[in-house]
Amino acid sequence: MSNLYFLPTHEYARVEGNVAFIGISKFAAAQLGNVVYVDMPEEDDEVEAGVEFGAIESVKAASDLFSPVSGTVVEVNEALADNPRLVNEDPETNWIIKVEMSNPAELEKLLSPEAYEKVCEAEKH
């Protein structure tokens, strides 16, 4: 079983233990183009599964960011404040926030990498 889960809105959760690294998928980064700004919550903020936690802006568009899981933000990726384009370079390495999950069972409602790939394929047509 993969440790990578997706929302249909193109956010991912990469799970290590009880912590989810949350960011946008490679597909979303490619669709957005050059990212110029990432709006992130603060450490210790609460996020809720399926609810907006921030926004990402590119030269082409601005999109809300939705959390795949509920929990407490334990770290924000400060490097993105200075260099938001890191998201374009490798979105799965350059996560946006780290969340200590309050309900890991929520992962069961998310898409597997295979199911997410089908969402992306459908959007390409």
- CATH top level? Mainly Beta
Count, helices: 4
If you average the pLDDT, what whole number results?
95
Strand content: 35-45%
Give the SSE string: EEEHEEEEEHHEH
Give helix % range: 10-25%
Strand order, main sheet: write it out.
1-2-3-9-8-5
What is the approximate shape? globular
CATH architecture: Beta Barrel
Q: What do we call the CATH homologous superfamily?
A: RNA polymerase II/Efflux pump adaptor protein, barrel-sandwich hybrid domain
The number of domains is 1
Structural class: alpha+beta
Would you give an account of this structure?
It contains four helices and nine strands. The chain is 22% helix and 36% strand. The protein has helices at residues 26-32, 79-82, 86-89, 113-124; strands at 4-6, 11-16, 19-24, 35-39, 46-47, 52-58, 62-66, 71-76, 97-101. By secondary structure, the chain is of the alpha+beta class. A hairpin with a 4-residue loop joins β1 (4-6) and β2. It starts with a strand and ends with a helix. The strands form two sheets. The protein has a six-stranded antiparallel β-sheet. Strands 4-6-7 form a three-stranded antiparallel β-sheet. It has a single domain (4-107), classed as Beta Barrel (OB fold (Dihydrolipoamide Acetyltransferase, E2P)), CATH 2.40.50.
What does this entry show, briefly?
By secondary structure, this protein is an alpha+beta fold.
Task: Please tag this protein with its features.
six-stranded antiparallel beta sheet; 125 residues; OB fold (Dihydrolipoamide Acetyltransferase, E2P)
What secondary-structure arrangement, pairings included, does this model have?
Layout: E1 4-6, E2 11-16, E3 19-24, H1 26-32, E4 35-39, E5 46-47, E6 52-58, E7 62-66, E8 71-76, H2 79-82, H3 86-89, E9 97-101, H4 113-124
Antiparallel strand pairs: 1-2, 2-3, 3-9, 4-6, 5-8, 6-7, 8-9
